[in-house]
């Protein structure tokens, strides 16, 4: 029962942090320092990624009309604009997919620790504030306010920003891609939604990679923990995505930048004191 309650907590954290630009993986790694699951190391590495499938299903349901490329009620049945959008999404996914497959183990070994997470939290927190201040000072309206205006070149550049998140935990995949999109003149709403859509193939691919790598041989207790975590992440994600989309229509991203900076400093301070004790 204690492990189930821990899984609920991990699901809540995943559902909140997957969509806010504050790093879900970073928060999960940090949470594990304080509330670790009693599972095998292999299951934990798989759990850290596959639990995100619950959160991804929330995107699929909430944005179904914007991402499903078929309309069975009308002729023709194919929605060409949505097919085009998916081609752009796939282009944006290529850099992270290639690097993730080739160097997944190396990145896990080098960067999955509290020091890296804390530093990256701070760096990208500062970037959010700088980018938003830059946009305010220029007083320029976004150049891209619709998915049809996202070119393949823009999609590829956003994909490179996503690659940074694939390498460094604590970056936030949504945070990195949103920053990249804002710098390219994409509106906040379109940047956030495009980021959400990017998460679908990325997270399904990452989950498949982990399942192939670590297999399916786990205890009944471990499978129950994963199922509970995914279900909770799904429910929380529905709430958080709706809140987030309403929030960014009226506000900028600077509050998330300040949150990242404060959290990164607290994490560094805590572990420096803890390590020295």
TrEMBL record:
InterPro entries: UppP
Gene Ontology biological process terms in this record: cell wall organization; peptidoglycan biosynthetic process; regulation of cell shape; response to antibiotic
Coarse class of the protein's main subcellular location: membrane
Catalytic reaction annotation: di-trans,octa-cis-undecaprenyl diphosphate + H2O = di-trans,octa-cis-undecaprenyl phosphate + phosphate + H(+)
Role this protein plays: Catalyzes the dephosphorylation of undecaprenyl diphosphate (UPP). Confers resistance to bacitracin.
Protein family: Belongs to the UppP family.
HAMAP family: Undec_diphosphatase
Note: Bacitracin is thought to be involved in the inhibition of peptidoglycan synthesis by sequestering undecaprenyl diphosphate, thereby reducing the pool of lipid carrier available.
PANTHER family linked: UNDECAPRENYL-DIPHOSPHATASE (PTHR30622:SF3)
Protein name: Undecaprenyl-diphosphatase
